[in-house]
Amino acid sequence: MNRRLAAVGVGFVVVVACTAAVGARAHGSSPRRGVVIVSKGANALEIVDVGTLKVVGRVGVGTVPHEVAVSDDRRIAVVTNYGAHQDGTTLSVVDLDALKEIHRVELTNLTGPHGVEFFDGKFYFTAEGSKKIARYDAATNRVDWEQEIGQNRTHMLVIARDGKTIYTANVNSGTVTAVNSDGKNWTNTVIAVGKGPEGIDLSPDGKEVWAANSGDGTVSIIGTASKKVIATVDVGTKRSNRVKFTPDGKLVLISDLGSGDLLVMDAGTRQVVKKISMGKSAEGILMQPDGTRAFVAASGDDKVKIVDMKTLAVVGEIDGIKDADGMGWMR
Fold first, then answer.
1. pLDDT digits (tens, 9 = 90+) for 251-299
2. Residues sharing a CB contact under 8 Å with residue 48, sequence separation 6 or more, in sequence order
3. pTM for the complete prediction?
4. In the β-sheet with 44-49, what is the strand arrangement from edge to edge?
């Protein structure tokens, strides 16, 4: 194992290059089409063949991982190792062809990494404990940018298609932050929403941001042009967790950690059209790229449920994922 201290303009990160990653386990082979699923209970990234819905590989990562993002070429995944008490300080970089952790990135001035998204060749992530968001460049193996958010529990983020605005859900502050770039500098606009915004997503047309408020059972809908709340919808959730638009923008899925239900909403009418039981503790949501299926983590049952988006019914499940949560599309 080699260690090197890499200086960046915003601080320092210690990068542990893992040719045989500490604590990493891998078995099986990379499937033709796969889903990667974070297993919080096993400290692992599970690789699932979407044809058979069977686990075909596992890669050990850091302590209590929560979320994962996959590069556009489907070769690299970055896992945020949140830690047991919002005290994690690492990212795990996984080679999806070799099925092994190739880097354990030590974040010396960023704690509680959580939400992560891939955009334009780099991975953007939240750092809850540090009240920041940051960017990891897999090509250089460095964290090359940070932005102070200054809100409590900056949990998830979503990025506009042009890359000029990043929206963050700040759970304990009851806010969403719109982080805007003019090409040189980044500035923050703080938007008050409901209680405990946790899940967040941007409509495919880029006109609305939906924030699911875990503390009061509502959804705050933000107009991206005005950067203001344009509607608040009471959806009656016990503890909203994630929000995901379908690729065509017609439906919105909301997982309810408290009830174990998946809510299906009509994006136009903003009405709940169906509730589907997922079991215990509905959490992460992944849309299949063609929009035909949704994968929903039922973490309390150690399963991921498969929902047919035409019939809005559960049509299958992936079993044996201990405390499943964040997911990514592999191929």
1. 999 999 999 999 999 999 999 999 999 999 999 999 999 999 999 999 9
2. 31, 34, 35, 36, 37, 54, 55, 56, 304, 318
3. 0.91
4. 54-60, 44-49, 34-39, 324-329
Q: What is residue 23's predicted lDDT score, i.e. its pLDDT?
A: 36
E strand or H helix at 238: none
Helix (H) or strand (E) holding 302: none
Under 8 Å between Cβ of 96 and 30: yes
166, HSE (Cβ side, Cα atoms, 13 Å): 28
Instruction: In whole angstroms, give the CA distance from residue 211 to residue 195.
Output: 10
The residues, any chain, with a CB within 8 Å of residue 231's CB and separated by 6 or more, are: 220, 221, 270
In order, the DSSP letters of 120-179 are TTEEEEEEGGGTEEEEEETTTTEEEEEEE--STTEEEEEE-TTSSEEEEEEGGGTEEEEE
Domains of the chain: 2-239 (2.130.10.10), 240-331 (2.40.10.480)
What CA dihedral angle connects 33, 39, 44 and 46, to 10 degrees?
Answer: -20
Sign of the Cα pseudo-torsion (233, 235, 239, 240, in order):
negative
Return the bridge partners of 14, or none.
5, 106
- Whether the CA torsion 166, 198, 228, 187 is positive or negative: it is negative
String of b and e for 14-34 (b: at least 16 CB within 10 Å)? Answer: ebbebeebeebbbeeebbeeb
Sign of the Cα torsion 129, 132, 133, 135 reads: negative
Q: In a 3-state reduction of DSSP, which class is residue 299?
A: helix
Q: Convert the pLDDT of each residue in 169-206 to its tens digit.
A: 999 999 999 999 999 999 999 999 999 999 999 999 99
In this predicted structure, what is the pLDDT of residue 6?
Answer: 33
Cβ atoms of 186 and 147 closer than 8 Å: yes
The 3-state DSSP class for residue 247 equals coil
Q: How far apart, in whole angstroms, are the C-alpha atoms of residue 9 and residue 150?
A: 20
